[in-house]
Amino acid sequence: MGENTPPQQDVPPSSYIFQLVLATTPLLGALTYFLYLTNMMVSGNNENPPNISFTEFLLIFLAFFFSWNGLIMYMHVYVRKRRALVRLYLDCGRIVFGDVRYDESLSGDLFKRGKPSWWFYNFNCLGLSKNEYADVVYTSEFGAVTKMVRTYQPFYRERVAILVLDGYPKSGLPKRDIEIDVASQDSSHLFAITAISIFWLFFTLFGAIVVIMAMDEIDGANSADGWEIFAYVVGFSFPVSFLSNYIRYLHYKQWLLESGKFDSELP
Question: How many CB atoms lie within 10 A of CB 88?
């Protein structure tokens, strides 16, 4: 515990990247088989055609396209902006001193902390993450501040350095936690996951186009519907993924900078 506490990353470590590749290999086999079936259905060589339509094949490929596009946007919108915001504390933050009050019985359960409105942002509420939380108490120029923060050192600490950004008196974060966070930010992991996601983005896009071309060979009218579905999904996936991740970042930024309370605001 303490200085040796392992960092928790916004991008998975190498072992999880390997698991991602391993876990998606069967998916690659399944989608490749769908392309094989598409080719057999067009050529008429399939004596026992599958009980699935070209439209369903198309929707499957486009659904995965949308998902992988969302992951790319998460990495390059939310993760990058979050990292820049955290580094801003080390570059521009001023030091005050305060306490980190950790309670193991409440740390991972935000409902017990009275924060159910954050369930969509904090996976802890669904039991999908093991983030630890603590209350930071320090004094700003406007009075004493109490704030819940994510901590990488889950134990009670007294008189530790707290970094506060100018203009945001409620933005205090323990300096040591920020240093651990920044140290865990490995660009190579971000690049690896992005490369995997781009491969899947183009593979699912290619698969969708192959299916539409097969629809055109059998029934030109259906291919027109296919191209329309393709245009809607591809056209909307980028702005929807970008906006959802940007909104998530804005929520995170508001939580980081303004979620604390002065003593006068506490019940």
Answer: 14
Count of beta carbons in the 10 Å neighbourhood of residue 265: 11
Report the predicted TM-score, pTM, of the whole model to 2 decimal places. Answer: 0.78
Number of residues that make up the chain = 267
Dihedral (CA of 58, 64, 65, 70) sign: positive
* Contact predicate 54/226, CB 8 Å: yes
pLDDT tens per residue across span 43-64: 766 666 667 788 899 999 999 9
* Cα–Cα separations (whole angstroms), residue 25 to 30, 75, 223: 9, 21, 29
Of 265, 189, 171, 209, the closest CA to residue 61 belongs to: 209
Q: Which of 57, 157, 165 is nearest to 102 (CA)?
A: 157
